Amino acid sequence: LHAVWPFVPYLLRGFVVTLQVAALATVLMIPAAFALGLGRRSDRWYLWRPAAFIVEFFRGSSALVQLFWAFYALPLLGVRLSPLVVAVVVLGLNEAAYSSEAVRASLKNVPDGQLEAAKSIGLSPVRTFFIVTLPQALPVLIPSMGNAIIGMTRLTALASLVTVQELTFRAQSVVTTTTKATQVYTIALVLYLALSLVLAGVIRLVENWVNRHYGFSKSVAAAARATSASVSQTVLAP
Amino acid sequence: MSGGAWDWSFAAHLPSQLWPGVEVTIECSLGASAVAIVLGLIWSIIRYSRVPVLSWLVAALVQILRGSPLLVQLYFVFYVLPNFGITLAPVLTGIMGLGIYFSAFTAEVYRGAIAAIPAGQWEAAKALSLSRSRTWLRVVLPQAGRLVVPPIGNYVIAMFKDSALLSAITVQELLATANNIASLQYRYLEPLTIAGLFYLIISYPASRGIRYLERHMGRLS
Question: How far apart are CA A66 and CA A55, in angstroms?
Fold first, then answer.
């Protein structure tokens, strides 16, 4: 471990970059997931068709291939982006395509009667979404969104392959200079693991807060968790 | 086509040049699927039977596998195992790495499916004084098997797509082949686009198939 000790600050700075990529990609992912999830539920063809196409496109091929394509091929078409932007946009949209299914499933959970009631008391569609649909969808949505955010932290390692100097990239370069693969990769694994455990804890807190705040009974909350668990199992493949 | 970024005459030869990569990709994803399907089952049975220390270890392992990036795990097995005297061909390392990573996810699927078996089935098996192994093999697993097929299928597709990461540990699969052609000819647009289309052409019909199975074999819930 002595040989790699001087490189720990270098690795930690890489970990900060990992956090940046994950945070920025998550900021892009959440609204994009809503846009795609709502788009696919729409009965207007010019909304659901493009949304369905984008979802199938990003889910259909490998995230790494998309990343390489945006990094190597897009500049040839005249679009030049920095590696960080490429990573954030591609990873954000990729994860959004997966979690849009969770958005869709959580919205399906809200009974139609609620929407009819909202219409009958004259709420606008936008207000209906924010004060009727969303609060009821949240208990189902939070756990699977949480899984998507944790999945995002794992996905950020791919950014190393398009020269973003995050944790995995720096671990690689430390290994090439010190040849201490075991120690360096163990440090990297521990950092990633700590991040996902901390995030899982935070998500648990948010989940509890949402369940308390929106006054769901225990049984409803349990049902919600069961639904989202099956959604994240079958839909949110990593 | 002159002037344009896309060169059709170059692109026309690519599918046949990329084909060996497609074969390696399919080989790796099927191999990894076999590893993930078997290991995941072992993990879930150990956790379910609550073997004292072992089940705790398996829980920790699953947590580690799920909590860290596949790429880092692949580097780990690729660069670290040789230090302990275990040297495997890149393809084997890739299959093991990919399969072990996904075994953590398939284990959850089995766990969900086993939990979905009504308690009455266990009690009935006990009442008939079936042995432990007979209860598992003849009562629980056949029923859980049906529920397991669609989600496992989804993970097989996920493994197919994530096998692209094996290019990082020098496996000559589809993405690596595309990259090689691209850097030799210094044309990235066509090889990467066609490689992406190959992934799409294979995984899209497969995922439609899984959705069909979901409707007919039932979903875990």
Answer: 13
